[in-house]
Every structure is written in structure tokens, then in C-alpha cells.
Design a protein that fits this description.
- Chains A, B: Catalyzes the oxidation of 3-carboxy-2-hydroxy-4-methylpentanoate (3-isopropylmalate) to 3-carboxy-4-methyl-2-oxopentanoate. The product decarboxylates to 4-methyl-2 oxopentanoate.
- Chains A, B: It holds the Pfam family Iso_dh.
- Chains A, B: InterPro entries: ICDH/IPMDH, IsoCit/isopropylmalate_DH_CS, IsoPropMal-DH-like_dom, LeuB_actb.
- The structure is a homodimer of 346-residue chains.
- With 346 residues, chain A is α/β, with parallel strands linked by helices.
- Chain A has two domains: 187 residues, 3-Layer(aba) Sandwich (Isopropylmalate Dehydrogenase); 140 residues, Isopropylmalate Dehydrogenase (3-Layer(aba) Sandwich), CATH 3.40.718.
- Chain A has eleven helices and twelve strands.
- In chain A, the strands form two sheets. A ten-stranded mixed β-sheet of chain A has the order 2-1-3-12-11-4-5-10-8-9, with helices on both faces. Chain A has a two-stranded antiparallel ribbon with strand order 6-7.
- In chain A, helix 1 crosses helix 9, helix 1 runs parallel beside helix 11 and helix 9 packs antiparallel against helix 10.
- The first copy, chain A, is globular and about 50 Å long.
- Strand 7 of chain A pairs antiparallel with strand 7 of chain B.
- The structure holds 3-isopropylmalic acid (2 copies).
- One 3-isopropylmalic acid sits at the interface of chains B and A.
Chain lengths: 346, 346
């Protein structure tokens, strides 16, 4: 834990700017007086692309390397062709900085609206692989646009990549009270990648005798997410399955407005990046309707990653208390940020 | 519509035998007296594999070709390595008989338990591509079992394969009152396959000016499945996304015990195959606890496919009425089959 934080901020598109402002407000409020916070904003996203055609120039990628961490708002705009900013900016950062742990906790906070009847007790974390699988950009298209087109997408999986994320997930499971780890894949169909995942999962498991393990096919996992989400503690899964499952997890725990995430490189070789799971929501940008809680909870993950455990817990407790006391009247983005900043400072 | 049906029956594993027996009971009860039903049972699945090492020998594949349709119970057993029966039998049939339409209706019947609060009005159908995508078995593993292993899975998509399933989905949407079709993919990451799907979807859509269209990324689609499932009418999607979404759809509409499916080759070149979405559930096999309704609803899809529309509707209405009058006491597999057979005969 350093006594200064040199933070890169990428507000991005749509509501990104608004939610990041609240994240920074709470970060400033929670940090001890003697910790020096330096921030540098990066102008990346749809506007930059429209202006210059650039998504993430080398100079900026280089500059980003020298920060302790990155806080990102949201990337994407309907005016930009699908994939350009996702692949050219967001995934480029995840891959360039080798963010192999995509950490996504899911908790049903008190007093939040879940679509599930019976309000099950949900508190699990998905450890999503972040640098392999179908996200590598490998594939292509032949005879594009003709009736004879063939398009491929190649999922690449390495023992190196799978073992490190599986090991991280065992460590997390081992440090939680329930000590339970579920592998999700589809090894009855994707037999090559699926069997490698399962074999490595079983092998690494021998080093964690106290962790109870379980395997589910991804289709069956979605059933349990809605019928029995309390059965999960830690889940480890591939990049694409993790993408799908964590949106579903956000939905059942009260919506994407509360779902935080960290793109983590635990080796420290590159800065880790924290962002809400939600997108840029251009339809509500500028209206003050965006919920900044997901970004604020992402700031908690950022603080935990940098060694500020007490401050991370203070933010999480503040969110819990804030939601518990909520009376259902509308609060603006700014008002929620103010309320949480006041609580963590208090 | 023929005046005889020559049906192949593959009971398969676990509860397969029990639920198929009820499906046949209802089929016999619903058919007009002058329709001759011939059935031939095929001994395929885990027991056969243990006995002979075979999953689907050429002679049986050849014999199956000459039936009007196939009714399948369930395939899979924990005593068989994951993937052996799935790839060697179930998927082999879907691919050999070019079942490019994997049809999976989802309806929240009256009086069934959904995990969703508020009991939304759910009535949609997923048209899942059945012969391409990540299910082709393309891929491999290098340096298997070593720390240097690389495993790949290749999703193969052709304009030929995508156009025919997209066109089928437009036809279905066009014939339904709401006339709405949603494409689900992940074209911001899987840009090669995703853009091809989207381009073909848009192109074919020009021929169906009355159909309202929509596009969702698969992760966002899972959110709407639990927060707003009533927004869907017809969904068209890739093989793997369809696999995941239809299990989730089954869960929100009262469980996998009610979810029917058809693996359809609309050209008639090969027999189509009808099966419940659920698996072989070895834990409850032989206990009389299996719900045969999914199989019985699959028989309705089979009848519709063979031109017996009135009989298909009779089964579906019987299931609706039966569920509506259910009082919550336990009924065995057999008792449910008897009740439905009595209703459709009456
Ligand atoms: C925007 C998109 C590329 C991204 C992903 O697929 O990873 C998003 O859905 C997420 O979950 O962070
Ligand atoms: C058993 C398995 C191969 C199959 C699939 O993945 O298609 C099943 O999950 C299904 O949905 O029919």
C-alpha cells in the first residue's frame, strides 16, 4: 500500500463521465488525508474516434502503463460500428495489460429490487478469465458479404492461461467462509477446451483440500442462477461464459446499476482496471438518471487491489446502509454520489 | 399429412425410458383411429456403449433415415465420459440429419411455479441454429495434458447455414400475431460471425416488411429474460447461445420439466427429431418423479411437423388445462401421462 495513488481515468462514452465523477468523489472522501491522489483523464471513446479515427494510440497505451490503476466509466456509442471501440479500446486494454482476472462480485443488497420471487440470499463472485477464449479476435471471414461466406471465431485456451485463473479462484474460495468453487464450462460439447479446463481444475484442486468443488455446464448454470443462486460461492469460468453469466447475475441481484468489476493483473506488471459492468446507456446520458453505485463499488475493488482494505470495506458498507435506508424516491446520479461520499467520510 | 406414422423411438438413458413411454401413450390416444402408428425402438445410449463401445453405428443411422420422425428421451450418464454420447450420438444425429432448426418454445403456463416475481406473460419461441457454430467439433488440443497445452474450439458459420435459419425465423414471426423477431449474438466481440449474422438478418428482413426486428447481445438478452421476458416473440440465434438461452427460458417458465424441443429439417430430406430439453436426470430415474410433460409437448411439436395440427393443439390445450387444474399434490410420471392421455382422447 502506497501513500500516493496515481490514477488514470477513462470516463469514455454516454453516462461514463457522470458515473466516474461520482466514483472520484467517493474515492476522495474515503482516502486518508495523508494519501496523495493524482488523477489524469484520458480522452478515449466515441468522440475521440469520430474526431481522429483513433481508438487507443500507442502513446496513450504507453502512458497508461505508468499509473497505479485505471478507473473506466463506459465504452460504446450507437454512432460507432459495433466492435470498433469494444475491440480497439476496451478489450485492447484488457489484453495489453494482461488482465487475466475479471472479477465480478454479485450480492443481493438489502432493499433492492430483484426480479426473483423469494429474495434468495445471493453472495457470490465470478472469476472470469479475461485474456483468452473466444475473445482473442482470432477468426475471419472468407467471401465476405456473398452467399458463399464462411465466418469463423476461434476460442484459444492455454494451460498457462487457465491454470493461473483457476488458481486465483481457488485462493479466493479458500479465503471465504463457505470455501466452495464451481467450474462452469460446456465440456460435453466443447470437448477440447472443456476437458483442459476440467483437468486443470481437478489438478489444482488437490492443493486446496478444504475447498469443495462442483462442475456445471453453462446452460445448467443459468438455471441455478434463477432457481437457486444461493448455492454459489466462487465461480470460475471462461471469458465468454463469464460475460453472459455476470450480466445474468447482475440482473438477479437488482440490476446492472449495482454490478462492479475489476480487470486485474495480480502480478502488478501492468495497472489493473476497474469499471462498472454496465454500458454507456446513451439513452439516459445527461439526464441524471444513471446510478453511479456500480462505479463506486468498482472504486472499492480498486482500493482493495491497491491494499486499502479498510477503505474498500467502508465503501461497501456505505452502499449497503444507503440501500437499506432508501425510501424509493428518485435520487439523481449526483445525489447518490453525495450521499455515499458523506457516509464514507463520516 | 400421411395416414400412417412410422416412428423411431430412442428412449436413451436415465428417465428417458419413462418419459418416452408417456409420450407414446399420449400420441396413441390423440391420433385418429385411421392413422396407423408403427414404432421401432432403438437401443442407443449409455448401456449400449458400455456393452459394445458403440454410440451410433452406421447401420442404425441408415435405418433411422427411413422413419417419418424420431422421438428421443434423454442421452447421458455419469458413467460415460462427458462428450462421448453427446457428440457420438445426440449431436451426430442432429448433424447427420441436418437439423438446422432447433425449435424451442417457451410459455409460462397457468398455475406453474416461475422463480420470477410478478409472473410475467411469457410466450416466445427460440429458433436455435442446429448444425453450425461452436458445435461443429472443430478444434483440437496440442501438447494435451502438459503445462504447454493449447486447446482450440472453432465456431464455423456459413451464409448458407445462417440464411436458412434466419429465413425460417422470419416466417415464424410473420405468422404470429405480434410479428416480432429478435436476433441474439455478440457482434461487438465475435465480429466475424456476428457481423455476418447481422448482415444476413437485415438483408432477409427486407422481404418481411411486417416483422419488427431487434438485436441484442447475448449478455443483455439474459437480463431481459428475467426482467422483461414478455418483450420476446421469436428469437433467432446461434447454436451455443441458443443452448444457453433455452435452459434459462425453461427455468423462468416453470422449469425444465415443461420445455419441449424439435430438431427439425424442414426440407424433409431426413427425419426430424423431437426431445425434451431436459437431460437424463439419473438421480431420479426409476422413482416415478420425472415429469413427462416436456416429452408430451415434444410429441405435439412432432405432430405439428407431420401435419397433424389439430392433434398438436389438442395436446397443448390438454397440458394447459391439466396445469391449470393441478392442486399441487404429487403425481407420478405415469399419473401425469394417464391424465393427459385421457384429456386428449376425450
Ligand atoms: C462491451 C463488451 C466488449 C464487454 C465484454 O463482452 O466483455 C462487456 O459486455 C463486459 O461484460 O464487460
Ligand atoms: C446434451 C447437450 C449436447 C445438448 C446441447 O448442448 O445442445 C443439450 O444441452 C441441449 O440443449 O439439447
Amino acid at each position: 500500500m502506497s501513500t500516493s495513488i496515481n490514477l488514470a481515468v477513462i470516463p469514455g462514452d454516454g453516462i461514463g463521465q457522470e458515473v466516474v465523477a461520482q466514483g472520484l468523489k467517493v474515492l476522495t472522501a474515503v482516502l486518508p488525508q495523508d494519501v496523495k491522489l493524482e488523477t489524469r483523464q484520458y480522452d478515449l471513446g466515441a468522440q475521440r474516434w469520430h474526431r481522429t479515427g483513433e481508438t487507443l494510440p500507442d502513446a496513450e497505451l504507453e502512458a497508461l502503463k505508468h499509473h497505479d490503476a485505471i478507473l473506466l466509466g463506459a465504452i460504446g456509442d450507437p454512432s460507432v460500428p459495433s466492435g470498433v471501440l469494444e475491440r480497439g479500446l476496451l478489450l485492447k486494454l484488457r489484453f495489453a495489460f494482461d488482465h487475466f482476472i475479471n472479477l465480478r462480485p454479485s450480492k443481493l443488497f438489502p432493499n433492492t429490487a430483484t426480479p426473483l420471487a423469494g429474495r434468495p440470499d445471493i453472495d457470490f463472485v465470478v472469476v472470469r478469465e479475461g485474456t483468452e477464449g473466444p475473445y482473442t479476435g482470432n477468426g475471419g471471414s472468407l467471401r465476405t458479404g456473398t452467399p458463399a461466406e464462411v465466418a469463423t471465431e476461434v476460442s484459444i485456451n492455454t494451460a498457462y492461461g487457465v491454470e493461473r485463473v483457476v488458481r486465483d479462484a481457488y485462493e479466493r474460495a479458500n479465503s471465504r467462509p463457505r470455501k466452495k468453487l464451481t467450474l462452469v464450462h460446456k465440456n460435453n460439447v466443447l470437448v477440447y477446451a472443456g476437458h483442459m479446463w476440467k483437468n486443470i481444475f481437478d489438478k489444482v484442486g488437490q492443493e486446496y483440500p478444504e475447498v469443495t468443488t462442483d462442475y456445471l455446464h453453462v446452460d445448467a448454470a443459468t438455471i441455478f442462477f434463477v432457481t437457486q443462486p444461493e448455492r454459489f460461492d466462487v465461480i470460475v469460468t471462461d471469458n465468454l461464459f463469464g460475460d453472459i453469466l455476470t450480466d445474468l447475475a447482475a440482473a438477479v441481484t437488482g440490476g446492472i446499476g449495482l454490478a462492479a468489476s475489476g480487470n486485474i493483473n495480480p502480478t502488478g506488471a501492468f495497472p489493473s482496471m476497474f469499471e462498472p459492468v454496465h454500458g454507456s446507456a446513451p439513452d439516459i446520458a445527461g439526464t441524471g438518471k444513471a446510478d453511479p453505485t456500480a462505479t463506486i463499488l468498482s472504486v472499492a475493488l480498486l482500493l482493495r487491489h491497491l491494499g486499502y482494505e479498510a477503505e474498500a470495506v467502508r465503501i461497501e458498507d456505505a452502499v449497503s446502509a444507503d440501500l437499506a435506508e432508501r425510501d424509493g424516491t428518485f435520487r439523481s446520479t449526483d445525489a447518490i454520489g453525495d450521499a455515499l461520499a458523506a457516509r464514507v467520510a463520516g
